Amino acid sequence: QVQVVESGGGLVQVGGSLRLSCAASGRTFSIAIMGWFRQAPGKERELAATVTWTAGITTYADSVKGRFTISKDNDKNTVYLQMNSLRPDDTAVYYCRVLTTWGNVYWGQGTQVTVSS
Q1: pLDDT digit string (tens) for 4-21?
Q2: SS3 state at 50
């Protein structure tokens, strides 16, 4: 019912910046929360940041707090992740997650972020 597509990943140097985008689309749906998860090689997927769709309340993992900023465009059903001061341990596949008001969860295909030292 809902398609989730990420973009903006790539290769950056340590200390650099990158901006990820995630667009959700479908015939009919309402977003409750959108967020970003990441999974590094050999590690479990972990939450990076989330934002509620109406109140705009944000949540960040301690590891990215102060460096990453999540934002949204409600009219475009799009969420962004501005990543600054990138470190090698930020290297991961970043997945966009959508929680609808009906309690359904949808995932994007993931976009690779590689931070080189």
Answers
A1: 999 999 999 999 999 999
A2: strand
